[in-house]
Each structure stands twice: as C-alpha cells, then as structure tokens.
Known about the structure:
- The structure holds two protein chains of two kinds.
- Chain A is mostly beta strands.
- Chain A has no helices and twelve strands.
- Chain B has no helices and ten strands.
- Chain B has strands at 5-7, 10-13, 19-24, 31-37, 43-50, 65-69, 75-79, 88-95, 105-106, 110-114.
Amino acid sequence: AQKVTQAQTEISVVEKEDVTLDCVYETRDTTYYLFWYKQPPSGELVFLIRRNSFDEQNEISGRYSWNFQKSTSSFNFTITASQVVDSAVYFCALRGGTSYGKLTFGQGTILTVHP
Amino acid sequence: GAGVSQSPSNKVTEKGKDVELRCDPISGHTALYWYRQSLGQGLEFLIYFQGNSAPDKSGLPSDRFSAERTGGSVSTLTIQRTQQEDSAVYLCASSFGGSSNTEAFFGQGTRLTVV
C-alpha cells in the first residue's frame, strides 16, 4: 500500500518569510516517483516537480527548492522569500514503479502568505 | 487543445438523476485519470485508463460510478442515481504513455452539486 502524509494542514506566513512544506511517504516499491502540485484558488492543479527514487539530488528552481531524503522517506518543499501569489494548496504525490496509473496524494497543505 | 479540457465546469443536479462528465485529454497522451476532490479534502483516485489496456477501476466508490474512454481519447465519467455525498469536484488528468515517471496534467475540474 502507498501512503503520503502531509502533516501540516495549514501554514500562515508573512511575505518574504521562508516556508517549508513537509511530505512523508510510504511505499513497498523500490522504484517510485514523487511529485508536488500547486492548486491556486482557481482550482486547477499545476505540476511543479517530479523526482525519481534513484535520484536523491536536491533541486532548486528560482525560489522553490526540494529536499529528497530516502533515509527518512521525505520529500520536503521550501519556498524562499514567499510572496502573496504563493498562496495555494500544495499537494505531494507518489506513484510506485509498479502502479503506472495511480497517483497517491497527500491531504494537502494550505499555504497563506500575508502581505 | 493545449491542456486537459473538462465539461461542464459546473453541474447542479437533483438527487437520483444521472450525470455525465466529460474529459478531453491533451493530444498524444495515452494515459487518462479521474480523481475526486471533496470540499477541503485531498484527491481521491477513481479510475485510470492506459491505451487499450483494461482500466484500473479500483478507486470507483460504488457501482453507480462508471467511466469509458472512446477511441483512446475522450473519456466520460457517469454517475447514476446521484446522491448528495457525490457532491465534489471531479478532476481529470492525462499523461504520456504508461510509464510511472511521467507527470500528469490536470484539467480545471467539474464541480458537481447534488441537491
């Protein structure tokens, strides 16, 4: 069975603060793929990043960075110098190497960035 | 079109009526997924289609739910004898091929309200 846990239901920060969204996963697959999606108030899920289980290199994209640690089964997402436009629901998701279709999502973290 | 298209965007129906929700995937994408998102909840997997393979229906909540995909492209999700607990946003996504390492792109969703 696969499971994704996002322990933080809601986070509220003030603009320019850094914020980290936690994601912990469970899977029996030795090969798997992790994803982060953003859901702004408009409702459409926007793909942010994909990470393969065999690649633990962290990634930075502008103000976004991701820290993947297999030892702790975590794939955390950090926004540096947050902006009001970052306000959204963020979902972490997992797909096992043997379950081609099914993306298992966490419950999501509601991020609110105040001006 | 450029993205995944879903119709209608909103649907209000009376309890007991049948509804059909439509999804047009991104051209060239052979994998198609349906998810359900209830108010304030995460994403619940419903069904997955990949090419001509038998669909993964493991997430369908009851036999009132069914889906088909014609010609490997457009998909229709049908809910028979709708109940109030069926009220949710129904999200469709598509991706390339049957490989686990491809990201899924989501449509805007259909907001279903059963009154």
